[in-house]
Amino acid sequence: MAEITENPSNIDQRSGFCKSNSTFYSKRKPIPLPSNESLDVTTFISSRPHRGKIAFIDAATGRHLTFTDLWRAVDSVSTSLSVDFSIRKGHVILLLSPNSIYFPIVCLAVMSLGAVITTTNPLNTKAEIAKQIADSKPVLAFTVPELVPKLADSNLPIVLCSDFINSNSSNTKIITSIEEILKREPNQKIRVRERVNQNDTATLLYSSGTTGASKGVILSHGNLIAMVQTVINRFKFDEEKEKFICTVPMFHIYGLLAFATGIIASGSTVVILSKFELDEMLMAVQKFSATVLPLVPPIIVALINNAEIINEKYDLRSLHSVLSGGAPLSKEVSEEFSFKYPGVTIFQGYGLTESTGIGATTDTVEESRRYGTAGLLSPMMEGKIVNPETREALSVNRMGELWLRGPSIMKGYFSNEEATSSTLDPNGWLKTGDLCYINEDGFVFVVDRLKELIKYKGYQVPPVELEALLLIHPEIVDAAVIPFPNKEAGQVPMAYVVRKTGSSLSENRIMDFIAKQVAPYKKIRRVAFVHSIPKNPSGKILRKDLIKLAISKI
What we know:
Keywords: ATP-binding, Ligase, Membrane, Nucleotide-binding, Phenylpropanoid metabolism, Transmembrane, Transmembrane helix
Pathway: Phytoalexin biosynthesis; 3,4',5-trihydroxystilbene biosynthesis; 3,4',5-trihydroxystilbene from trans-4-coumarate: step 1/2
Oligomer: single chain
Family: Belongs to the ATP-dependent AMP-binding enzyme family.
InterPro entries: AMP-bd_C, AMP-bd_C_sf, AMP-binding_CS, AMP-dep_synth/lig_dom, ANL_N_sf
Distance between the termini: 48 Å
Organism: Penstemon smallii
């Protein structure tokens, strides 16, 4: 990140905006980052002082790992990788697994050697996983028994994230299991430890590809260290007493980095659910007296729609905070949640895989009451609002593309110079692709994805705005809005709607409901009913899938 050379007197203290260079500076206090360049993120996390005792709890079995158990396991796995499998700095390791206690152990062990961890969605098809393998070229894979068939043709040696070693498939090379590795005593003397620098690659995460092909995002140890520092400095929680529920996927930036690194660095306890199931999540909150629940907007909407039943069935008194990330949360949804769960505060967060999940947050109750905002720029993060057509940097309350610069911004896209140069400018600015504005108090408001704006007769219509209105309709469970081709207008807003069970809500009633609340050019012109809205693991709507569906029926 470029040094801040501006005279503080040139920066408006209320908004953080500097007129001389059209840059918004974070209003939050800078956080200390280690000056030692020879430092890996695993060493950084393990050396942090804290009072925590239990690191992880498996919600299904009740099995737990103390922090001592965790670091002993990391040592054992890293030693085995180095000695038994000759894993060295720069080697890529694939992790294909649902959430589990083993997940952070594998990640931390791999990164401690300077090797690179790449994760993938367990729901991906065999072909999709094969494509990622061909791109990232891993030398070893960790997976669970039920997912072994998806790696059958990869010819990768496999370590099972379980104590089960036998395989029914002759096309796989299962060589051992984590449980077998953990039975051995780590031998520090024979482990090869290469020098790891903060600029070295730590993870290769593949972006969600909601509007195009998925790309490998290169994140360094320094990126992750900055992320960890930001996460643990965000709140004034009593870490020793906090229990986080981890139901968001660990293979995604939200789950992997916040829970495999950020939260455990603070000494808090993470209760792990292997997959999301609403009743199981709420039962875990009650059983383990969880205090903090990180979620994505679709789950928050589900909590709102089922609030009466949930509040009768479960004791959620221990819960004081919900962290929302992965996709924008509308003002309407935030207000409705606060009304139905008055004892719980929603804290918003905005970030991308390309920014290591860091960008803007609401960190206090007062900030969280500014409904509709993603929060203030994170510590040491700089922002610009840029006109996407003229490239002019804009001032307060002007809408344009958000650019970010800071210590957590990615190194680039893996083996894709064209995508890297179009997303990162020579001065280190990340072009987020999000249409935003920053108000007079320095709060970031995310309007929509630039590529997803509907162009109606020259007007720009943000789908997120219409979706937020649809979601407050009492007979609508979920909704998505897409551009539908139209000869006269270019594009018109089309809504895909999931009705509540038993509802007879019609297309015309939905269009009338929206028409009463928006300008004429924002009216929904077409409606289709579906059983579910396709989304990626972070809750972002897969509009490209819905657009294909709509066009196929023309």
